[in-house]
Amino acid sequence: MTPRTWGEPLVVTALIVGVLDISYAIVFSYLRSGTSPSRLLQSVASGALGRDAFSGGAATAALGPGFHFLIAFIITAIFFGVAVRVPALTGRPVLVGALYGVVVYAVMNFVVIPRRRSALVRFREDRPRHRRAGAHVPDRRADRVRREPHVSRIQEPAVIE
């Protein structure tokens, strides 16, 4: 495949990647912490808009899929570009695509998103240093602490005198 013949396969592949990834993220975040789809999409938009994305309502939630599919398109285009230069990658497209997906998942969840999240919530000193798979899911406890300053993650035991 040459760059001139990429058009349709690149767009179709990016759409498949984007739909599968956002579907996974929405289902996983809902099951993990009850995060609504609109909140997750605002989280995606916060990569470009910062904290203001969370107060933008439906408008910023609507920007989330746009940014998400842009990233999916770029990641897919990188794979296509490398595959043109390394033809062996096209011999087993399902296996190589799955391995590339694992690499992209790891880079996004352990490098890109933690750096972005730390910039959004620098004021949280009790933030864990490690990052788990699925780190792109918004932390509802952190949202509660921001909304209700009297709530802390560690409750002091009551002193009875």
Structure report:
There is one protein chain. The protein is mainly α and 161 residues long. The chain has one domain. The chain has five helices and no strands. Helix 1 crosses helix 3 and helix 2 packs across helix 3. It is elongated, with a radius of gyration of 19 Å. The C terminus is likely disordered.
Level of helix content? 55-70%
In total, the number of domains comes to 1
Q: Please trace the helix and strand order, writing H or E for each element.
A: HHHHH
Largest sheet: none
Radius of gyration, whole Å: 19 Å
Uncertain stretches of 5 or more adjacent residues: 122-127, 129-135, 151-159
Q: What is the strand content?
A: under 5%
Structural class from helices and strands?
Answer: mainly alpha
Q: How many helices in DSSP terms?
A: 5
Key terms:
161 residues; mainly alpha; 5 helices; disordered C terminus
In short:
By secondary structure, the chain is mainly alpha-helical. It has helices at 7-33, 37-49, 57-85, 93-120, 140-147.
Write the layout of secondary structure elements.
Layout: H1 7-33, H2 37-49, H3 57-85, H4 93-120, H5 140-147
